[in-house]
Amino acid sequence: MRRKPRVSILTLTFNHRKYIETTIQSLLRQTYQDWEWIILDDGSTDGTGDTIKLFKDKKISYTYQDNTGMLHFAENYNKVLQLCNGDLIAMLDGDDYWPEYKLDIQVKRFDDPGVVLSYGECCIVDKNGKKIGYINVPEDSAIANNNPTGTALEIFLKIIHFRNYLAMHNSTVIVKKDALLNIGGFIESQASHQDWPTWTRLSLEGRFAPIPVCLGYWRRYPSASTYQHDPILLFDAGIIFLRDFVVQNEKKLHDLGFFYNLIDLEKHWETIRKEFINYLPFNRAMRMLKLGSYTNARDEFKKFLEKDPSLKNRVGYALVALSSIIHYDITHPLISLKERLGKVFHIP
Predict the structure, then answer these.
(1) Confidence of residue 237 (pLDDT cuts 50, 70, 90)
(2) What long-range pairs does 270-277 form, CB within 8 A, spacing at least 24?
């Protein structure tokens, strides 16, 4: 009888005392129990470690270190990777959580030896666990499955995830350890996060296995570390990584049948960069509305309005300003209603 693979779960945490118990409980409730959990506390000062130590489970390993910050995410993940004994590697941030069936249904996807990575849909929640968004797997099955190997680069090289939510969120991903070690572990680049550079590189190693159900809950709130970094610097770091990726892997890309013109990619990236910067205050405003940070939402939308004082944007600002007065988001429900009506009446 074939041995079930062990899953090594990697967690980086920093000042997640309010949320870490939910994270722990979601793992302890997993219906698949062949796992080990390695937690690296990056200098928490709020008692996060004290909460973790309340759970006496031999499968949970906790280590504390002085704070290194967001720019060392990949480096810290590689520290934890060195301690893993599992066949599969999963990531679970200290403020996110999983549905109880996550490991059970996802581990089975690795029965196919050609699969190096599996991921699923992601439910975005606020600080109270209220749903504020949802990430689906890509509709294009070839891209979603990275089949043939390398096809997912259609998304990664166009940096679509900088304008929208990344389809493969960290909390839903499991990777084959051997494949991860084969590329040298988590990719350490100027980009502060380890996730999408690593998934991009893994897209050259084998196929992906998407699962069209929620496999993780991504918690977003104004003080989250995600929002403590300059998004333009992150964007530029992403372009640097992609440029290096294309140059360094040119032969492998050609062997797989993919030919990319770096000059054309550079032009595309610059176009996307301009769009990203132009819409940055708008996107911030919409995000702050969902998170209940109404004053910040109004201030960000005002910056956007100053760049483009069109009638549509003036109406948008009025809705955001009204939301900030009544402390209730009326903008997203109206957008959702327009989208639903548009499908019926073809409203542009």
Answers:
(1) confident
(2) 272/158, 272/159, 272/162, 272/163, 273/235, 273/236, 273/239, 275/163, 276/162, 276/163, 276/231, 276/232, 276/235, 277/232
